[in-house]
Amino acid sequence: VLGGSDADGAMLHSVERYDPRQDVWEQMPPMQVARVAVAAAAVDSCLCAVGGNNDMVVHDSVEIFDPEAAGACWLPIPRMRSPRWAAAAAAIGRSLYVIGGRDGNDEVLSAVERFDPEAQGWGILPPLRTPRASFAAAAVGGMLYVVGGYDTMLQDLRSLERFDPVLGAWQQLKPMGAPRFALGALACRGCLYALGGAAGDVDRVVLGTAERYDPKADAWLSTSPLRTPRRRFGVAACRLK
């Protein structure tokens, strides 16, 4: 768990790690930069913190943390081409993808970048079909999926897009049953799950509903709802031994 803001609105550098074997939270080395609305992804055994904002500054900086390294601390890697917050990040293999979000002018972005650890540089990829922010992304079966969020008109989205790294192209897929932004998404057993979030232009409704997307069938199915409706949260799946 990294960054964000506390109950008083102070922006945080702090990082915590949960050990499921000991059932304890551990304080980890802090990030170099406090980040709110930061995107995060795991690449190999490393954790990446991407973009975000603080004190009205939108960041193009990226930090990486290797917990297995001697004297482990957060280290900068080359900056993104575009500063962004409310973006999403995901990894396929050893490549880090950063998608969408909002820039320093509050424009909702369609821009997509990929970091190549061998070349130590960012490459520009084809843009999203629909610019979006406050959405979710996950890698399933070597493909990158982005779902939900809101567009340049601040309209909540149902849409789902998939990027094929081999073809280098985005494909529009079947949309979710309901629009949602500030949602969580994860990959599990070959499927994509979209969880919670919020919807509505004026009277925001926090959602507890959940949907599962099957890439083979290009179909969504409603699943059991969350016990507690929630938005702007994080979610991940892990296999416990």
Automatic annotation (TrEMBL):
Keyword Lyase recorded: no
* Keyword set, alphabetical order: Kelch repeat, Repeat
Q: Does the record's keyword annotation contain Repeat?
A: yes
User: A single Pfam family, by name?
Assistant: Kelch_KLHDC2_KLHL20_DRC7
Record's InterPro entries? Kelch-typ_b-propeller (IPR015915), Kelch_1 (IPR006652)
Full protein name: Uncharacterized protein
